[in-house]
What we know:
Belongs to the UPF0065 (bug) family. The chain has two domains: about 35-130 and about 255-325, Bordetella uptake gene, domain 1 (D-Maltodextrin-Binding Protein, domain 2), CATH 3.40.190.150; about 135-245, Periplasmic binding protein-like II (D-Maltodextrin-Binding Protein, domain 2, 3-Layer(aba) Sandwich). It has twelve helices and eleven strands. The chain has helices spanning about 5-30, 50-60, 80-90, 100-110, 120, 145-155, 170-180, 190-200, 210-220, 265-280, 285-290, 300-325, and strands at about 35-40, 70-75, 95-100, 120-130, 135-140, 160, 185-190, 205-210, 225-230, 255-260, 295. Strands 2-1-3-10-4-11 form a six-stranded mixed β-sheet, sandwiched between helices. A five-stranded mixed β-sheet has the order 7-6-8-5-9, with helices on both faces. Helix 7 packs parallel to helix 12 (about 300-325). The longest helix has 30 residues, at about 5-30. Mean pLDDT is about 85; it is low at about 1-30.
Amino acid sequence: MDKRHFGRTLGALVLSGLALRQKAFASSQNRASLPRTITLTVPFLPGGGADQVARDFVQATAAVLADSSIVVLNRPGANGLVAERLISQERNDGSALLLGTSSTLAIGPMLVRSDLNPIDDLSPITLLSKSANVLAVRAESKISTLASFIEEARKSPLSCGTFGVGSSGSLYSSMLQSEAGVHITQIAYKGSGQAISDLLGNHVQSVFVTTSAIAALVRAGKIRPLAVTGSARTTIFPGIPTFEESGIKGLDLNGWFGIFGPKGVPSEIATIFSEVARSLNENPAFLKRMSANGFDWVGSSPDQMGSELKRTISQAKRMVKVANIEIQ
């Protein structure tokens, strides 16, 4: 190596080191503005997709947010409304966060009367991940395809477990019933974990949940996915067709998980969490684990989370109209 090249390389390393130290200093200053204890409230029971995203995020960021401790709190009920009300009334200093989902914040309010408006009453912080929804049965079921599911459901009603009244699974079940002309008896649970448990116990004939909720069980050969939502196949189950491929239109809305706070969370605090979430895109081991569990990691800005919420609400309105569902 000649002296000029060595000098340029050394200079780059020095500048890089200085930049890293400056970034670390800035980060430590930012972290100092966060509360010592932060509660991340999940609107479902432990064991489902939302709970898994929350706990994976907390575990992965523990070292980065070393001066703060994030505690996951499960508060199921009313398809997320119990948790949403709780967070909307908390202080907006970053000490109380909500794990919001497309189901609880965008779809639910259109199906079940709510006194809370997620756009007006909550602050978007970061879009964590996305996950398609899937119609699935037990591996031992005689139903092997969406076509055979439809055939059976036209003969007599089939039960379908969803993760709450007003959830995306609830909406998709209604859409499928409307578009395919079938009979589906919806059974609403307080979380996908409970619905899946009853599916495995043969207490319900099918479930409509996120791919993340059943990815491990599909790999274990215990659950058989029939079709997924979205305009394209998911990388989680590449061999499983979309509903559109199978001739059922309109089920093109995928789910997401994001972090929200009470209205008025300061931008500098929201930015800390969004930057931490975005930094996980540089963690190959974390991304691999998320993919294996059925999630596509995003890590967005607060503005992007807000835009995604509004876009999902617009899509859901169209689906609710097509399915001819009335607010309860």
